[in-house]
Predict the 3D structure of the following.
Amino acid sequence: MFIMNIPYFNLDHIYKSGQVFTWHRLDDGKYIVPFRDKAIKVEQRRDTISFSCSEEDFYNIWYEYFDLDTPYDQLHFRYRNLGGHFKISCNRCSGLHICKQDLFEIIIASCLETATSIERTRQMMNGIAEKCGKKHKQSMRGEVIWYEFPTPEQILKKKSKLTTQDIGYKIDIITGICQDIVDGWLDLDLLRTMEFDDAVEYLTEFKGIGPKVAQSICLFGLHKMQSFPVDTHINQMLEREFEMSFDEWVEWYLSETKYVDNMGYLRQVLFYNELYPVTETNYDWTSDKKKSIYGKVRRKKK
C-alpha cells in the first residue's frame, strides 16, 4: 500500500468526466483501475489517496498514468479566472486529471462511444475484455477478479465470441481497425510520433474514425492537450451559454497560446458540467457571488 497526499486530484471527477471506460467503481472515492497487465485499487479521502501497490510500482507506472507531473492547480486557476460559466465549471470539477491511458484501448473506446452513452460504452468495453482478454485474480484487501483489455490479435482470434449484444452494430468497425493494426496500415508507433494535426489527419483515413473520434484518441490516447473533441454536449453548451460556434468561441475566449495549449483539460471540465449540471443542491454557494454570464443564480423561494 502506498499513500500520498495529492491536492487538486479527485477520482470521482476523473471517472465521471467520460474519459475512462474500464475502471470499476466500488463506491464514492473507491475504484479498481486496470492498465494493460496491471491493476490497483485506489481509495480517496479528501486529498489523501491510497494505492494498492508498492512505492516502486507507483512511481514506475501509476504516477505517469494519473499524470501527476502536470500542474493541474495552475490549469484550474487559469481557466477559472476567465469567469462566468468557466468559473462555475472549474469550481465544480477542480480534481480533474487527464489520464495517460493505453492507446489501443482508447481507439476502441472512442469508436464505440459515438452515438451511445458513456455507461453503454463501459459495458461494451468490459464485454470485450471479458470475452477476449486475459482473466486476472489479484489480492487487493480481498480477492478481485478483473480482465486485461485484449490486444488487436486477441480480438481477431476471438471475434466469434463477440455478438451485437456485446458491441452493437460496430463489430465490423472494431475488427476492421484491429486488422488494420495487425496488417501495419494503422501504425501505433508511428502515430505516437506525430504532431497533433498530422495525427488527426492520419486517424481519419480509417473507417469508423471521424474528426471527433480522432480528437478523442489524441486527447486520451496520445495526451495531446490541445485536442478538443466537439460532440453534441459541447455544441449544446456553446449555443446555450455563449451563442457562438466552436471556432468563434475559441477566437473570442481562448485565442492566447496559454489557453489553446491545454484546451483538452477545459473540454473535460465543461463536459463534466454538461453531464452533471448545476442544481440548487449541488452548487457551491460559497465559491461565487451568484453571478455568471447567464445572469444571477438564485435559490428557489420556499
Q: What stands out?
A: The CA atoms of residues 203 and 209 lie 6 Å apart. Confidence is low (pLDDT under 50) at residues 280-302.
